[in-house]
Every structure is written in structure tokens, then in C-alpha cells.
């Protein structure tokens, strides 16, 4: 199973697709957003993602506050949300820098406005159960990456069926909507359950921890898309500050994921670089005392030592009881030529 987002193939035989989630950590400053784009490219991310908010389309003004906000979200977005013209400018700048521009629309109208700018739609967890909007967005004939925080498997089933049955190229992101999360709540093993449960989707992981460890674990468990919040300076206040990493950390994340993904083969064989090591590291049968010609070898006469160039240690039972046909000094490798057939 794989999907294509612009020039990137995403799936179980392809590199992990790494998204730097710029969210609203630019605080509405276009110069800051452009610096984030440059830093994401330097770190090796495949894409940087921003958010398109039309506050009056996505929420009522008196929507309850989340614990990770210090002011009502509606008011925050009214102050800091990027305009459509700014998104166009950032898309153009991403093209210039050479990194994929992505964007999360938080309403159907927002998706319609950015449709010409994005190769795929990223859907946040809060919109995961909004089937009418998701179906309409799916009709725009682009891949959809849908986060699943706060949701039950049955709710994910409903969204999966609504989109997969309409042949929407789909990525489902394992996600926990805690900011930051309690590690015991993460349940990363759900990734493997989702891979089995949703065969028409690629499974990824959207991570809200303040470090890198669970992204590495998600990669090892089979996630083929990773999304991580990024910020230029973690001392900067904002709603996503506590779940964001700086760009030097993003570079370490990319480096680690690339090393992990190439290490996940399933073939157990002797590798070429191991072959020379086998010759000295494995053990062979050696004499523990001088053994004269004509003697019959007993267990107390022999044991195993390095190197592995003589009779292998696992054949010790075949050596015991053999007659020696020439003198063998102590502490010497025994060969079949020393023994009576």
C-alpha cells in the first residue's frame, strides 16, 4: 500500500515521510515563517506544514479553552492566523527553497481556499469525526492525511470507511491529543493494530511529546509518516510551545529515522562484514593437556576456545571417543587430521 504526494511515494516500502509542523508558532510573522521553512529544509524534513484558520468558519467565539492555551483560541487565531495571501507567499517560498509546502485547513471553506496551493490535505484530530466536511474535501481528489487523536477505533472506522470507500488516497495518523502527553497514555502499539485494521490506508504517527524517542519507536513499529511540531525557540510562548522541538532536534530526528528505517529488514543471514569476524570470534575445539598418539579423547581433555578456524565447538560430541593418531600439544587447535577416522 502506498500513496503519492507530489513527487513522494509514501508507504511500507518507501522512506518515512517527515512533516515539520510549523502550526502557529510563527505568531503571524511571515519572516518567522520563512525562517522556519529554511530551517526545516536544512534539517532534512520532507515537508513543512502550516495551518489555515478562518475562525468564524471553524468555531463559535465562546468555544471553551483548552488547557494548553492561555487565551481563548478564537481570540488567538484572530490575532495570529495567516491570511490566504500569506499562504500563497509561503507556498512560493517553499518552492524556491525546495521543500514541500503543506497546510491544514480547519474548515471546509479553508480547504476550498487552499486547494490550489496544496498537493494533499492534512486534517487535524478535531475534524476527524466531521464526516460531511471530510467527504467534501475528499471530492477535491487529493490525498488526505487524517490525525486520530481523541478518537475511538470505532470512530476511526467510520472515517476510514467514508473515505476509503470513496477511493480517497488516505493516511491515518496515530495521535494522542494531550499537550504534552503522559507517556503511559501513548499506546504506540496501536500503530501495528491500525496497520492490520486499515489495509487501504498508510499509517503514520503525529507526535506531541517534547522529545524524539516516541517518533523513533513509531518508525520501528511501522509508521510511514511522521509529524512533529517545530519552533525556532522553545522559550517563545504560544499554544504549541510545550509540544514543539527546535530545528536542531528536528535534524537529529531526521537522521535517526533514516538510520532506523534502513535497519528494519527481516532477513537473517551472515553479512559480508561479519564473515571475517566469524573466523576469530567463534570457538573451536582445543586440547587442555598434551594428548599422546594412541590415546582416546575424553571430555576432560578438550574444550572450546577462539579462533573459529578449527573443528567447530558444536561438534565436540563427535570428537570425544576418537583415537589420536599423532601427538597433540596442550592448548592447541585439534583438527580432523589428528584423529582416527
UniProtKB/TrEMBL annotation:
GO process annotations (BP): carbohydrate biosynthetic process
Database matches in Gene3D superfamilies: Aldolase class I, Antifreeze-like/N-acetylneuraminic acid synthase C-terminal domain
GO MF entry, a single one: N-acylneuraminate-9-phosphate synthase activity
SUPFAM superfamilies associated with the record: AFP III-like domain, Aldolase
Highest rank taxon of the organism: Bacteria
Protein's recorded name: N-acetylneuraminate synthase
Pfam family, one: NeuB
PROSITE patterns: AFP_LIKE
All copies of domain AFP-like, residue ranges: 284-341
Source organism per UniProt: Paludibacterium purpuratum
PANTHER family recorded: N-ACETYLNEURAMINATE SYNTHASE (PTHR42966), SIALIC ACID SYNTHASE (PTHR42966:SF1)
Amino acid at each position: 500500500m502506498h500513496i503519492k504526494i507530489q513527487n513522494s511515494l509514501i508507504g511500507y516500502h518507501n522512506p518515512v515521510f517527515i512533516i515539520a509542523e510549523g502550526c502557529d508558532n510563527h505568531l503571524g510573522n511571515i519572516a518567522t515563517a520563512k525562517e522556519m521553512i529554511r530551517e526545516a529544509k536544512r534539517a532534512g524534513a520532507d515537508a513543512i506544514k502550516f495551518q489555515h484558520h478562518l475562525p468564524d468558519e471553524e468555531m463559535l467565539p465562546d468555544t471553551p479553552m483548552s488547557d494548553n492555551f492561555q487565551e481563548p483560541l478564537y481570540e488567538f487565531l484572530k490575532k495570529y492566523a495567516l491570511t490566504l495571501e500569506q499562504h500563497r507567499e509561503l507556498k512560493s517560498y517553499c518552492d524556491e527553497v525546495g521543500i514541500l509546502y503543506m497546510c491544514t485547513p480547519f474548515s471546509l471553506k479553508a480547504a476550498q481556499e487552499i486547494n490550489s496551493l496544496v498537493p494533499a490535505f492534512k486534517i487535524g484530530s478535531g475534524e476527524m469525526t466531521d464526516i460531511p466536511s471530510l467527504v467534501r474535501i475528499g471530492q477535491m481528489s487529493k490525498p488526505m492525511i487524517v490525525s486520530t487523536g481523541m478518537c475511538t477505533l470505532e470512530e476511526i472506522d467510520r472515517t476510514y470507511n467514508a473515505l476509503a470507500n470513496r477511493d480517497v488516497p488516505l493516511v491515518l495518523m496515530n495521535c494522542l491529543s494531550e499537550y504534552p502527553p503522559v507517556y503511559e497514555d501513548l499506546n504506540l502499539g496501536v500503530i501495528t493494530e491500525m496497520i492490520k485494521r486499515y489495509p487501504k490506508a498508510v499509517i503514520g504517527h503525529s507526535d506531541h511529546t517534547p522529545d524524539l524517542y516516541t517518533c523513533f519507536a513509531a518508525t520501528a513499529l511501522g509508521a510511514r509518516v511522521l509529524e512533529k511540531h517545530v519552533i525556532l525557540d522553545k522559550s517563545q510562548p504560544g499554544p504549541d510551545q510545550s509540544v514543539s522541538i527546535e530545528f536542531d532536534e528536528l535534524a537529529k530526528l531526521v537522521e535517526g529515522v533514516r538510520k532506523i528505517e534502513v535497519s528494519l529488514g527481516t532477513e537473517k543471514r551472515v553479512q559480508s562484514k561479519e564473515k571475517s569476524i566469524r573466523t576469530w570470534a567463534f570457538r573451536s575445539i582445543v586440547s587442555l593437556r598434551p594428548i599422546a598418539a594412541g590415546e582416546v579423547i575424553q571430555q576432560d581433555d578438550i574444550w572450546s576456545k577462539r579462533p573459529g578456524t578449527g573443528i567447530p565447538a558444536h561438534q565436540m560430541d563427535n570428537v570425544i571417543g576418537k583415537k589420536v593418531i599423532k601427538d597433540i600439544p596442550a592448548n592447541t587447535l585439534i583438527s580432523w587430521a589428528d584423529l582416527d577416522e
